[in-house]
Amino acid sequence: MTIRISDGRLLGPLMEALQDAGCAAARVGDDRCRVSAVATDEVQAYLELRFFARAWALGHGADVQVEV
């Protein structure tokens, strides 16, 4: 899955938060990263990742899009 963040300066801190939560994250652009999440299926992984990323972004004044 890929996460795009509205403020590219926050991508590094978001990736650190994802890694602290047990996800593998790799930068693939100035404002996006590819993420692998551990879950029982892809739908569950997407929902959990979307919830986490949106909650984190709201707390940091940004917006995110999670793409499968």
Structural notes for this entry:
With 68 residues, the protein is an alpha+beta fold. It is 41% helix and 25% strand. The chain is built from two helices and four strands, in the order E-H-E-E-H-E. The chain has a four-stranded antiparallel beta sheet, with helices on one face. The N and C termini lie close together (5 Å). The model has no long low-confidence stretch (mean pLDDT 95).
Rg value: 11 Å
Number of helices: 2
Could you give the count of β-strands? 4
User: Which percent bin holds the helix content?
Assistant: 40-55%
Query: How would you state the average pLDDT, rounded?
Result: 95
Blueprint (SSEs and pairs):
Elements: E1 2-5, H1 11-20, E2 24-27, E3 32-36, H2 42-59, E4 64-67
Features of the shown structure:
2 helices, alpha+beta, 68 residues, 4-stranded antiparallel sheet
Brief synopsis:
41% of the residues lie in helices and 25% in strands.
